[in-house]
Specification:
The structure is a single chain. 31% of the residues lie in helices and 23% in strands. A hairpin with a 5-residue loop joins strand 5 and strand 6. The chain is built from 8 helices and 9 strands.
């Protein structure tokens, strides 16, 4: 029990020094047609495939996909949804304390891992444009309720950067937005979002 609690506290304190690589630029005039899905992790993202199918094709999301499958949430995220997934890339998981993911992937930590995976997910298909509009209409910041049940704060910063602040105050940033799925949308993020785990 002490070992489990210690690993949870280590996990909650492990995000460090993230950068903000993606900025939203203002659009004026006639809206351009929606861009095709970007290449993610060296793979084409097919809009008719599910979140799990596309994430599984991305070399940058192997750790996230392993976590989804270890918790059995692949069935849920392959379902109708729709879902908005803030998908941490492998680099984001690499910022966690050494050994964190090895610990979380053990069967005895399945419930904690499921909380973390569900904290990356919001109900509905929310494009970056929709999220930014909601934030700006609310003065710059909105609170999203994750599937895990805890709040996640999204801020549309003056610079155009979109920041996510988790329940522990750790910031992450949207690195690649609007990857369309048959059952929602993925926004690639550069940090693992963490709910309160104690």
């Amino acid at each position: 029990m002490t070992s489990t609690r210690n690993s949870v506290f280590v996990l909650a304190a492990c995000l460090l020094g993230l950068t903000a690589p993606f900025a939203v630029t203002a659009q004026t005039g006639t809206e351009a047609p929606a861009a095709a899905n970007p290449i993610v992790g060296g793979a084409e993202m097919i809009p008719t495939k599910t979140i799990v199918e596309n994430a599984s094709a991305s070399a940058e999301h192997s750790t996230f996909v392993a976590a989804i499958k270890a918790t059995g949430l692949d069935a849920t995220l392959s379902g109708a949804g729709p879902f908005t997934v803030f998908a941490p890339n492998n680099e984001a998981f690499g910022r966690l304390a050494p050994g964190t993911m090895d610990t979380l992937m053990k069967p005895e930590h399945k419930a904690t891992l499921a909380k973390i995976v569900n904290y990356q997910v919001v109900s509905g298909a929310l494009s970056l444009e929709a999220l930014v509009k909601q934030a700006k209409d609310a003065g710059g910041t909105i609170t999203l309720t994750t599937v895990e049940g805890s709040p996640l704060t999204l801020t549309a910063e003056e610079s155009g950067v979109v920041k996510l602040t988790d329940a522990n105050g750790n910031p992450s940033y949207i690195a690649q937005p609007d990857v369309t799925q048959s059952n929602g949308v993925i926004h690639v993020v550069n940090g693992v979002l963490l709910p309160k785990l104690s």
